[in-house]
Design a protein that fits this description.
Two copies of one chain form a homodimer. By secondary structure, the first copy, chain A, is an alpha/beta fold. Helices cover 44% and strands 17% of the residues of chain A. The first copy, chain A, has three domains: 44 residues, no CATH class; 127 residues, 3-Layer(aba) Sandwich (Rossmann fold); 134 residues, Rossmann fold (3-Layer(aba) Sandwich). The mean pLDDT of chain A is 94. Chain A binds a DNA duplex (16 and 16 nucleotides) through helix 2 and helix 4.
Chain lengths: 331, 331
DNA sequence: TTGTAGGCGTTATCAA
DNA sequence: TTGATAACGCCTACAA
């Protein structure tokens, strides 16, 4: 059995209350007593039981991240941002996994069961009645990526990102721009739709008549081969490829393009999406659209803390991050 | 205030005990009562308070990862392995950060304060007296990477990895092999020493007289430039570079080599370390030593669970993972 | 099949 | 400056 505050109190010849006060460095307790208690605490390796504390105080000093398991660089970097922001503060980070579709149930369990003081829900498709309940109870829930008007959230402007990417490529004289996406794999998630809409809108606004949408089964290293083959198959191949499917797929394309003799950027310009570390490790620097994942993680935590504090405005605040084109060599 | 088991009991006209039993699906309670209680639980959005439960049960159903903040692909992939292993089980993962040097204090706080049932400590330099205490109290602590004989741990055979890498390069006819490392940055951590010793031993055993150790300030993208310049400066440059400093630095080298006209692998063969995703996204496939980080994460969790279960052998078990050479194009 | 009572370890309140 | 007492919400005997 672990050491309790009672045992410390007994050994020090004081009451548990006193020990508690000493540990919180209260000025109301005398020097001598304090020193004596602290020595015993040290000697006995006493640390307050966290559950007892939480139960009494009604808080957990923890923030939870809920997400389904799909592996994804954005998620890693986002989490990293949250971690950095949490670091040094009084909060602790907890990770909870939920099968795709079961995220709302998991959020409820955490918030209602006081497993954490706030939840950051990543890419969660949230039913309206669920959100209404959360909102009514003023539970601190931050939506990340798939936000909903009227609820606290953090998002990236995927539409603008796509639009700007196409505009950049067109500005470089490219007229036949293809886009790659994994629509089926991420059905329902706003970022897919938004990126596609941005592409379509920009093409229209810029008077580009060419359109080629390459559907990928996943955002992985198999993408390069699929894209190259699709492109070589066309009688009128694109002169630019916008990998809205991410830097990883763009890197995969660069690699496969070299194998099959497609020259980048001469034959075809390539743009990625995310500006993850991958974009900097390809031998030909990858021009890409930066999504500030780390900053978004910080913002999400910040918003969560404001919800915990009960700041009224925060309960319907959506923080949107704009895109930035990072020019390297591939386009 | 959140809903409690008492309120549910009152609404259902039963005792709290009954509600508790219903929630744990006990066969000792009648169908009718069960249904009635469950409906009210649902209606009221009742979820048991986690702190209360933990306090009573004396466990947390959580495993903690303690690490200092240094960003590192091995760590990410390791954590990913733990996450996968945790997924589906009854345990939850918690992340705790500790300034380099303060990890032991953090571990104590977590284990003695019952903030988690077990701790995985990454790259922690643990003082002997700290370990002795932990061992005596049979607290479930798993050392990752920097393991100590007699204590539960998970490690990669860095010595063998380095040795095999050099042997591979020598087998390819390379005689002047350089190694890159960030010794000062990771002073005291075993992996640096082991990798260096493996390099030295293999060179000696294979009769290679050439030796060149490139010290890097960090494992980042600035490494390429430093390495290329160092190499071009030599009157007798190496014909192989073993980036024991990781794939990221190797990728950085490939990129810089292209800029400065060094041909890989003709002028110089390049090997990385880790086999992270980076090794697959460089345009010229990176030959590297695979460190099975994800599997190591799984193993660490597995070991932690065995410690929690009190398996005697586990308390002095060190799981070692062997290296594997992954041949691609750069060497 | 259901209810009562006590305690897990802590802190807050109030009294001394 | 310190101590006694009562919760926090749950679960586990044991009793009915």
């Amino acid at each position: 059995m672990a050491v309790t505050i009672k045992q410390i109190a007994e050994l020090a010849g004081v009451a548990p209350t006193t020990v508690s006060l000493v540990l919180r460095d209260s000025p109301k307790v005398g020097r001598a007593t304090k020193d004596r208690v602290l020595r015993i605490v040290e000697d006995m390796d006493y640390y307050p039981n966290h559950s007892g504390k939480m139960l009494k105080q009604g808080r957990t000093d923890a923030v939870a991240i809920v997400s389904s398991l799909f592996q994804n660089i954005f998620k890693m970097e986002f989490v990293n941002g949250v971690e950095r922001a949490v670091h040094g503060g009084p909060f602790q980070l907890r990770h909870y996994y939920a099968e795709a579709g079961s995220e709302p149930a998991k959020c409820k369990e955490i918030l209602y069961g006081k497993m954490a003081d706030a939840v950051l829900a990543m890419s969660m498709l949230a039913p309206p009645d669920f959100l209404a309940k959360i909102k009514a109870s003023r539970k601190p829930l931050v939506l990340v990526e798939d936000v909903v008007e009227g609820f606290p959230g953090v998002r990236f402007d995927n539409y603008a990102a796509s639009y700007e990417a196409v505009r950049y490529l067109a500005g470089k004289g490219r007229r036949r721009i293809a886009i790659s996406l994994a629509m089926k794999a991420y059905m329902g998630h706003c970022f897919v739709d938004e990126r596609l809409r941005g592409y379509i809108a920009a093409s229209r606004d810029l008077g580009l008549e060419y359109s080629e949408i390459i559907e990928l089964p996943a955002y992985d290293l198999g993408a390069g081969r699929i894209m190259v083959e699709r492109i070589l198959d066309k009688s009128e191949p694109p002169d630019a490829l916008f990998c809205a499917s991410g830097d990883l797929t763009a890197a995969s394309f660069l690699k496969q393009a070299r194998v099959q003799g497609l020259r980048v950027p001469d034959d075809i310009a390539v743009m990625g999406f995310d500006d993850s570390i991958i974009a900097q490790t390809t031998t030909l620097g990858l021009t890409t659209v930066r999504q500030p994942s780390t900053e978004m993680g910080k913002a999400a935590l910040d918003l969560a803390l404001r919800l915990i504090d009960g700041e009224a405005e925060a309960f319907s605040m959506i923080v949107t991050f704009p895109p930035e084109i990072i020019v390297r060599e591939s386009a």
